[in-house]
Amino acid sequence: MKVGVLGGGQLGRMMALAGYPLGLRFRFFDPSPDAAAGHMAEFVSGSYDDLDAVERFAAGLDAITYEFENVPAETARYLAERLPVHPTPAALEVAQDRLIEKTFFRKLGFQTPAFAPVDSRNDLDAALREIGLPAVLKTRRDGYDGKGQAVLQHVAEIDTAWEQLGGRPLILEAFVPFERELSIVAARGLDGSFRAYPLVENEHRAGILGRTIAPAPGLTPELQSTAEACVSAAMMELGYAGVMTIEFFEHQGRLLVNEMAPRVHNSGHWTIEGAETSQFENHLRAVLGLPLGSTAVRGYSTMLNLIGATPEWSTMLGIDGLHLHLYGKDPRPGRKLGHVTICATDPTALEERLKAFVESLHRS
Amino acid sequence: MKVGVLGGGQLGRMMALAGYPLGLRFRFFDPSPDAAAGHMAEFVSGSYDDLDAVERFAAGLDAITYEFENVPAETARYLAERLPVHPTPAALEVAQDRLIEKTFFRKLGFQTPAFAPVDSRNDLDAALREIGLPAVLKTRRDGYDGKGQAVLQHVAEIDTAWEQLGGRPLILEAFVPFERELSIVAARGLDGSFRAYPLVENEHRAGILGRTIAPAPGLTPELQSTAEACVSAAMMELGYAGVMTIEFFEHQGRLLVNEMAPRVHNSGHWTIEGAETSQFENHLRAVLGLPLGSTAVRGYSTMLNLIGATPEWSTMLGIDGLHLHLYGKDPRPGRKLGHVTICATDPTALEERLKAFVESLHRS
Questions:
Q1: pLDDT digits (tens, 9 = 90+) for B141-165
Q2: How far is B227 from chain A (nearest CA, A)?
Q3: Do B298 and A298 touch (CB under 8 A)?
Q4: What is the mean pLDDT of residues A52-56?
Q5: Which one of A14, A20, A24, A195 makes the best mutation probe of the B interface by having the most chain B beta carbons within 10 Å?
Q6: Beta strands in chain B (DSSP E)
Q7: How far apart are CA B173 and CA B240, in angstroms?
Q8: Contact A338 B285 (CB under 8 A)
Q9: Within chain B, how many helices (H) and strands (E) appear?
Q10: What interhelical angle do A121-131 and A158-165 show, nearest 10?
Q11: Domain spanning B2-85, CATH class
Q12: Least Cα separation, residue A99 to chain B (angstroms)
């Protein structure tokens, strides 16, 4: 079976590494000719709206999925008329627009930070009166890794934020003084079967995910079941097949939906070593109509992104239980070049290995 | 770094899957244009003695290794004059000839079944007088998976065996009524560092490995340290870097060396899920001069080869803890098409999952 993947970044690369052992073959599509998945599978480079290139990509495929949520929904719909495409393109439309996304989760009965649409300076003033400060002004579309947003702490910051972001469809969101950010990765099969990984705790640095602790420390069954109910309800509403990720703020014991990703997710990378079946394998199983694999956890894991530069290779590999994942990308400031997942059978051993890793960073 | 691999079968395929996360790239060389590693990396097809093809393969590589022990040692030596080639070609020469191999281990002080060289019918009669029946007559070179050998139980079988195998350099070995076959997989780094996986128990069917149980049930520290001493001594004697496998017969509490493989091995496939670092990753770390990864075991594993045909895909994937590995090969009787490794945190759970797998085989 040959699977086509829209997007050829590191998520696609890790999807192929999980799919080859299932006997699958892959073809990737990406606007960048240097995409990370390009040198280990068939590869078509083109613009997402170049239907000739998209047709070349689709020829002879058995199924199509994506590893990038900003694939134009029209391209996904065009392909879905010809081939099985999962997750449903409708999920892209929800995930690509913060206003539609938050409205979607509210309608399903889940909590989100307070929000209001902002299409004009008048809207912004009205929204600020309703929501108050601090708040976050964000573009509705195309934001990622902290880009396209401005935190408003004081009235004096409003004009600058408007100059920076105004003119595009925006959303104002209440700034939630959350205790921590949690996320859940879950898979839904074509037959409606459902399996979720435990909630994990995420730490960001400069808007980019820095570290994921799996499972989230102090995770209660109540939090886990709330998160599972949320992702399951979203999947059912959309008629979804594949892996979905939802990021939450934990605040005063409640989970507020921050955003969803209709795909495998950076906060699920720990599952490669830390769970019985990885998010990548479960995504492929889900979109191809195969039984989902066990999401049971194996020990304790911490995932750390390697951003901008990679530490000295051989020093890192000297730490037991450290699993290195480089994406084959050239270094550039702020770029995710890889990640490491450090695993251990007990939290104390994990803490020691993490300490050794941090020390190796300072030495190198 | 780009690594060249002589041989492009499933061992090479799994090596590339382990190496991509380290940021490595691969180029394979194999006489068969359909080799299993061919569609996921650069690939050169040619005969091992076609030096033009071998030169094309080697151009621009940083290091070379092999996944097949019958690569002509001359080809490996030719390449070793130009590039780092590990394991040392000397290991191929030992592994390719059963007489040299058994003599090598005897000289190191380890036990083997009694053996004698057989180059003529007179030699065979002399060897039979010395060793007695039952015995096994084998070709010295090119035997694998039970091919090129004949078991002699009765005097009446001697003529037939000679007709079948005579004319090539042979070896007669005492037939050891062993309790079980065990094997050890270990890695030695360029710096002499050494790490071994636990001994595993192997069951063969019709000369082909059928099942590996890891760790071997009832494994004692004495057996493990004897096996580690043996593989470590062999590696030191050869100045070896990479993974080596030694198969033993266990007989009356002793380990007798049966054979060595200067490469990753079918009986080490369980390490992909069942150990902290897989044999494939440790082989790459070893030949590239990187620190070796932990060989600590994660739970209990049983590996079963999928030979000749593959069971119904989706039925297998319905079993928790079952990890499927298909090699992308066309079905053919007796051909290894893939394997499954079933893992669990305790032996009882493993037994239940194995039972479920065997039942799914009967249903499909």
A1: 987 666 789 999 999 999 999 999 9
A2: 23
A3: yes
A4: 97
A5: A20
A6: 2-6, 25-30, 42-45, 63-66, 115-118, 135-139, 149-152, 170-174, 180-188, 194-196, 200-205, 208-214, 242-251, 254-261, 300-307, 322-326, 336-344
A7: 27
A8: no
A9: 12, 17
A10: 130
A11: alpha beta
A12: 37
Whole-structure pTM value = 0.95
A17, B13: Cβ pair inside 8 Å? Answer: no
Task: Compare all CA atoms of chain A with the CA of B312 and give the residue at the minimum distance.
Answer: A290
Q: What ipTM did this prediction achieve?
A: 0.93
Please answer whether residues A138 and A148 qualify as being in contact, where contact means their C-beta atoms are separated by less than 8 angstroms.
Answer: yes
The two structure tokens encoding residue A320: 């037991």
Which residues from A are below 8 Å from B299, CB to CB? 298
Among A21, A294, A298, the residue with its CB nearest the CB of B17 is: A21
Cα angle B233, B99, B79; round to 5? 70
B266-281: average pLDDT: 97
* A114-174: CATH, from 3.10.20.580, 3.20.20.370, 3.30.1490.20, 3.50.50.60: 3.30.1490.20
pLDDT tens, position by position, A345-363? 999 999 999 999 888 877 7
Q: Distance between CA atoms of A181 and A183, rounded to whole angstroms? A: 7
Distance from CA of A272 to the nearest CA of B (A): 10
Contacts 24+ apart (CB under 8 A), B313-319: B313/A290, B314/A289, B314/A290, B314/A291, B315/B360, B315/B363, B315/B364, B316/B340, B316/B357, B316/B360, B317/A285, B317/A290, B317/A291, B317/A293, B318/A291, B318/B360, B319/B353, B319/B356, B319/B357, B319/B360
Flag whether pLDDT at A180 surpasses 70: yes
Q: List the A149-152 sheet strands across, edge first.
A: A115-118, A170-174, A135-139, A149-152
pLDDT per position as a tens digit, A255-313: 999 999 999 999 999 999 999 999 999 999 999 999 999 999 999 999 999 999 888 88
Residues of B in contact with A291 (CB under 8 A): 314, 317-318
Cβ distance of A321 and B276 shorter than 8 Å: yes
Amino acid B145: pLDDT: 64
Give the sign of the dihedral formed by CA A71, CA A72, CA A74, CA A78.
Answer: negative
Which among B278, B267, B290, B142 has a CA at the least distance from the CA of B215?
Answer: B267
Residue with tokens 């020691």: A352
> pLDDT digits over B214-236, tens only?
999 999 999 999 999 999 999 99
Give the count of alpha carbons within 13 A of B266, CB side only.
Answer: 27
Length reported for chain B = 364
* Inter-chain Cβ pairs, chain A and chain B, closer than 8 A: 79
Residue ranges of chain B that CATH labels 3.30.470.20? 180-363
For residue A17, give the nearest of B21, B25, B289 by CB distance: B21
Residue limits of CATH 3.30.1490.20 in chain A: 114-174
Identify the bridge partners of residue B173 per DSSP, sorted by sequence position. B115, B136
Question: Do A72 and A12 touch, CB atoms closer than 8 A?
Answer: no
What's at A320, amino acid-wise? D
Q: What is the pLDDT of residue A358?
A: 86
Strands B2-6 and B25-30: parallel
Residues 6+ positions from A303 with CB-CB distance below 8 Å: A211, A212, A214, A267, A269, A270, A339, A340, A341, A342
Tell me whether residues B326 and A22 touch, CB distance under 8 A: yes
Question: Where do you find CATH 3.40.50.20 in chain B?
Answer: 2-85
Superfamily of domain A180-363 in CATH is: ATP-grasp fold, B domain (3.30.470.20)
Measure CB to CB from residue B290 to each of A296, A298, A313 and give the nearest one: A313
Interface of A with B (CB under 8 A): 13, 16-17, 20-23, 25, 39-41, 276, 285, 289-291, 293-294, 296, 298-299, 313-314, 317-318, 320-321, 323-328, 338, 343
